[in-house]
Amino acid sequence: MTNRKRSQERASDALRDISFQPGIAPQASGSVLVSFGRTQVLCAASIEEGVPRWMKEQGVAGGWLTAEYSMLPYSTSPRKMRDSTRGKVDGRSTEIQRLIGRSLRAGIDLEALGARTLWVDCDVLQADGGTRTAAITGAGVAIAIACNSLVKAGKLAKSPVSRRVAAVSVGVVGGEVLLDLDYLEDKDAEVDLNLVMTGDLDFIELQASGEESVFGAAHLSEMLEYGRLGITRLVAKQEEILASLQ
Asked: For all residues of the chain together, what is the average pLDDT?
């Protein structure tokens, strides 16, 4: 494992500075402002009694979790136009919010949630690479807070959150594997990988692609090694912030 120096004297296998600020959206059942370096995402989980109509029609037991993702206009430079102004939903945002929803549903017992819907909103306040991985990691904390509120209110005997879920990016830049890429690294990456895993290091989703390049088994193995290191550290930080709220 190398120790390549990067911006802010960061080694190749190091995460950016990670922080969670809970309670950022008081009207939500659970919320957190997550920061991966300069990337900041506000993640809020709201609980609604009732489930989507399709669940009722198909007789599906339990609850549901759905996610929405957006990059606010001032999160990038130049300014990003709002979807409402463009008149259509950005395809990238749709793909990312589906990823967030799939990832978070893997970490919750929907039947134990009961006939409720968990709405998860992820709004990017500042984008410097890794917005989707920050959103998933932050939302994992937000839904845990929201579900704990159901327990405190006596609506559930225990939290339906069954496992921690976190995500991190890995890439190959200049022939070297790097963990948790910022924007400048991501735009120059020959290979880009987004990894979503549980706290037990089981895979939820793995998105890997060569950017006008190819990669072999050795690079893939090294990227997964770095990714597992990153997930372990992120889950530890999730557990730390949640323990402080007990």
From this structure: 93
Cα(178)–Cα(117) distance, rounded to whole angstroms? 37
Cβ contact 43:121 at 8 Å: yes
pLDDT reported for residue 2: 47
Q: Measured between alpha carbons, how far is 20 from 134 in angstroms, rounded to an integer?
A: 10
For 67, the token pair is: 């996610």
Handedness of CA 239, 131, 21, 100 (dihedral sign): negative
What is the token pair recorded at 188? 């120059």
Rounded CA-CA distance 182/172 in Å is 12
Interval 30-49: pLDDT, tens:
999 999 999 999 999 999 99
- The DSSP H or E segment spanning 86 is helix 83-86
Closest CA to 134 of 106, 161, 168, 101: 168
C-alpha closest to that of 183 among 134, 238, 120: 134
Single-letter residue type at 51: V
Residue 135 to residue 130: CA distance in whole angstroms: 8
The whole-model pTM stands at 0.94
Q: List the domains of the chain with CATH numbers.
A: 7-244 (3.30.230.70)
Residue 102 has pLDDT above 70, yes or no: yes
CA 33 to chain centre: 12
pLDDT of 84 reads 67
